[in-house]
Design goal:
- The structure is a single chain.
- By secondary structure, the protein is an alpha/beta fold.
- Among the domains are: about 5-40 and about 105-175 and about 275-350, FAD/NAD(P)-binding domain (3-Layer(bba) Sandwich); about 360-435, no CATH class.
- It has 14 helices and 19 strands.
- It has helices spanning about 10-25, 55-60, 65-70, 105-120, 160-165, 240-250, 255-260, 265-270, 305-320, 325-360, 365-380, 385-390, 395-415, 425-435; strands spanning about 5-10, 25-30, 50, 75, 80, 90, 100-105, 120-125, 130-135, 140, 145-150, 150-155, 175-190, 200-205, 210-215, 220-230, 270-280, 285, 290.
- The strands form 4 sheets. Strands 6-5-14-15-16-13-17 form a 7-stranded mixed beta sheet. Strands 8-2-1-12-19-18 form a 6-stranded mixed beta sheet.
- α9 runs antiparallel to α10 (about 325-360), α10 (about 325-360) packs parallel to α13 and α13 crosses α14.
- It is globular and about 65 Å long.
- It starts with a strand and ends with a helix.
- Bound molecules: flavin-adenine dinucleotide (FAD).
- Flavin-adenine dinucleotide binds near residues 32, 303, 304, 307 and 309.
């Protein structure tokens, strides 16, 4: 009989990891603090949706579960920008045929938990972890039970109980940062039984210091998310009456408001949530390790939180196979090697907020994008835009970040000259020199 593995947190990452470990022959149990959503009254169709892309899809395929998830995905081919007058501009995400997918978080989570159960994983709901003994490998739960295992994996999200416990151990580093913006979800109902907006796009209303986005759902609704400062003017704090909300949406998001006649009611009945980045290291202690948001929570602006967590799973499994499932070697190696990529996507995600809310409608940005598309067309193998490296490739995030900075430098240099004739060979030569460290 192979080792007994306890996973804390049956969220997206924990349940995917459980499926794979069980299929590899381990004894796997998952402990989840929430109650079983199948037995409680959760309206799965109304919960928020996420953008699933290549890095997330590959591990789902590895687990053999992608086929059952694929029918629920809605492809989004690019960004559809809405300006204040309601004019639309389309920006593809990548080359023709490249797209990201909108998926319901609740539906995806449920499919993963069910796949884990079908594979033979024991999923124990109403098990809130409150303590871990890292020397004896024992987890303690709020209901009084204690469980001993050969390996403990903490996939218990951004406010991980296991990570909190690690904070009391020697030489464990931890930092957290809340950005000044929060978010609120709003719903666009179907219009005459059809989508209120074109469904195969991620819609963005960039407005400088704040923005609204909308992703489609299978029930023909759109979930909109308003990313907005907590304080200042305008802000969550400054919109204190229904009239304030109505005039704010009328001014900045007129076309979206027309699709949400109950906007003021929604605004005051839906919660306002904060956005956090957490970093910590090392991710392991003895025979315990953190994966997903528990190890590295990031802001959602690159749509990579879940995707990077799923990629954690693939890399962890591949490394474990290479090292013959020797946990004492795997945990320190995984923790040391994956950290730089988690830091890189954390930085990229913070930066993408500025790009989405400030730049996507800006003429200089569009000129830059056009130039970049031309370079890519001429040198498709050598010049891959940063968004594509992050979203449509397996390149380590740290390498994507490094190459993206070089691309920016090369384009800055070119755009700062008045040269009207674009010497593409010169651009690519400069890029290649800098890439090699020149
Ligand atoms: P979680 O999904 O948070 O799961 C953790 C699980 O652990 C939960 O089930 C929780 O109940 C359980 N748990 C917590 N504490 C305990 C405990 N003490 N004992 C037992 N169980 C416990 N990512 C993308 O890739 N694409 C997107 O488009 C995207 N959009 C986002 C939009 C928003 C507004 C936000 C906030 C995030 C978004 N993300 C997105 C990020 C994504 O939601 C997370 O990265 C992802 O959910 C992380 O998965 P996880 O399994 O690590 O953690």
């Amino acid at each position: 009989m192979k080792d007994k593995i306890s996973i804390v947190g049956a969220g997206l990452v924990g349940s995917l990891l459980a499926v794979i470990l069980k299929k590899k022959g381990f004894q796997v149990q998952i402990f989840e603090k929430r109650s079983d959503p199948r037995k409680s009254n959760v309206d799965a169709g109304r919960s928020i949706n996420l953008a699933l892309s290549h890095r997330g899809i590959r591990p789902l395929k590895l687990a053999g579960v992608f086929e059952s998830i694929e029918p629920y995905l809605i492809p989004m081919n690019g960004r559809m920008m809405h300006d204040e007058s309601g004019n639309l501009t389309f920006q593809p995400y990548g080359k023709e045929g490249q797209f990201i997918n909108s998926v319901s978080r609740a539906q995806l989570n449920q499919l993963l938990v069910e796949s884990a159960e079908e594979a033979g994983v024991e999923v124990l709901f109403d098990h809130k972890c409150i303590d871990v003994d890292f020397d004896e490998n024992i987890i303690e739960f709020e209901n009084g039970s204690k469980v001993a295992s050969d390996l403990i994996i903490g996939t218990d999200g951004a406010f991980s109980a296991i990570r909190k416990k690690l904070q009391f151990t020697d030489r464990f580093n931890f930092s957290q940062h809340y950005i000044e913006h929060g978010y609120k979800e709003l719903c666009i109902e179907p219009n005459n039984n059809d989508f209120g907006l074109e469904p195969n796009y991620l819609h963005i209303w960039p407005r400088g210091n704040f923005m609204l986005i909308a992703l489609p759902n299978n029930d023909k609704t759109f979930t909109c998310t308003l990313f907005f400062p907590f304080e200042g003017s305008p802000s969550f704090e400054s919109l204190s009456s229904k009239t304030d909300v109505d005039s704010f949406f009328e001014k900045y998001f007129k076309d979206a408001k027309e699709l949400m006649p109950d906007i003021a009611e929604q605004f005051f009945s839906n919660p306002t949530s904060s956005l956090i980045t957490t970093k910590c290291e090392p991710w392991h202690k003895n025979r315990s390790i953190l994966l997903g948001d528990a190890a590295h929570a990031i802001v959602p602006f690159y749509g990579q939180g879940m995707n990077s967590g799923f990629e954690d799973v693939r890399i962890f499994i591949e490394m474990s196979e290479e090292l013959n499932w020797n946990w004492d070697e795997i945990l320190p190696k995984y923790s040391a090697e994956r950290k730089k990529d988690a830091d890189a996507i954390s930085e990229l995600a913070l930066h993408n907020f500025i790009e989405m809310r400030d730049h996507v409608g800006d003429p200089t940005f569009l000129k830059r994008k056009k130039l970049e598309a031309q370079i890519q067309e001429k040198y498709p193998k050598e010049w891959i835009p940063l968004y594509s490296m992050v979203t449509f490739s397996d390149l380590p995030y740290s390498e994507a970040l490094r190459l993206g900075k070089i691309q920016k430098r090369v384009m800055d240099e070119f755009l700062s000259t008045d040269d009207q004739n674009i010497d593409f060979q010169k651009i690519i030569d400069r890029f290649n020199t800098l890439k090699k460290g020149g």
